[in-house]
Design goal:
Radius of gyration: 20 Å
Strand order of the largest sheet: 3-4-6-5
Strand content: 15-25%
CATH class of the largest domain: Alpha Beta
CATH architecture of the largest domain: 2-Layer Sandwich
Largest sheet: 4 strands, antiparallel
Helix content: 40-55%
Number of helices: 9
CATH superfamily of the largest domain: Trafficking protein particle complex subunit 3
Shape: globular
Distance between the termini: 49 Å
Number of strands: 6
């Protein structure tokens, strides 16, 4: 049962599930670069997905010379283990679409409720993480707060790169995976705005005065979503 829970958790990410299905259907070994190019994601994100699939025994890997010179490449293939999952199908994507359409039908009031709820959930998430770590935000240094945000975003499947600029006055970060991408295709404005406000909520739970600017959107053809954060001391 424990292994089943681990596998279902790993496959709950749509991109990771698609990668596993791709390897299953093509019956061939793949490299990190193969997956990065096939799914239009950063190589670091591709490596993380493959590692998680390997951690639960769905894939195995080995270093092997490819005949192109240079260092051996790490090749991933399906594990010989039989993976069996037995659980009822749950279509949370459909539920998300129903909820978004209901909010959209309510106009500005619906959108306001969506954004306020998204920010509240983000703040509660950070507060719960702080309670788990038995630490308050006032005990954390600036860099520790940034690491806390990065860890939380990674757990959520955002896979961020965060850079500190101007002696802690500004943050610049990119998000290489959008967990809401499938729903955002039909409701881009509402979903992207909610995502940005959700991220603002994560940051506001640790930093008191800040401004967040969404400067790049992967749904517009960019390689990642990017944000600038100005922090007022």
């Amino acid at each position: 049962m424990e292994q089943t829970l681990k596998i279902t958790n790993v496959l709950s990410d749509p991109t990771r599930l698609s990668i596993y299905e791709y390897i299953t259907k093509n019956h061939k070994e793949v490299t990190v670069q193969d997956i990065a190019e096939e799914f239009h994601i950063h190589p670091n994100v591709a490596r993380l997905h493959l590692t998680k699939l390997e951690d639960v025994g769905m894939l195995v890997s080995e270093n092997r010379k490819t005949g192109r010179g240079g260092r051996p490449s790490r090749l991933y293939r399906l594990s010989d283990e039989v993976i069996e999952l037995h659980f009822p199908f749950r279509d949370y994507k459909l539920l998300s679409r129903i909820a978004l359409e209901a909010m959209h039908s309510l106009g500005k009031a619906g959108e306001k409720a969506l954004y306020e709820t998204g920010k509240r959930y983000a703040k509660e998430l950070i507060e719960n993480q702080l309670m788990k770590e038995k630490v308050s935000k006032n005990e954390l240094t600036f860099n520790q707060k940034v690491d806390f945000i990065k860890t939380t975003m990674t757990i959520l499947g955002f896979y961020p790169d965060i850079y500190i600029k101007e002696k802690g006055q500004k943050l610049y970060f990119q998000i290489f995976n959008c967990p809401f991408k499938e729903v955002a295709v039909d409701y881009q404005t509402q979903t992207c705005n909610m995502h940005a406000i959700f991220i603002t909520g994560l940051l506001e739970a640790l930093f008191d005065n800040l401004e967040v600017e969404h400067v790049q959107n992967m749904l517009d053809g960019c390689s990642a979503c990017a944000y600038h954060v100005n922090i007022q001391n």
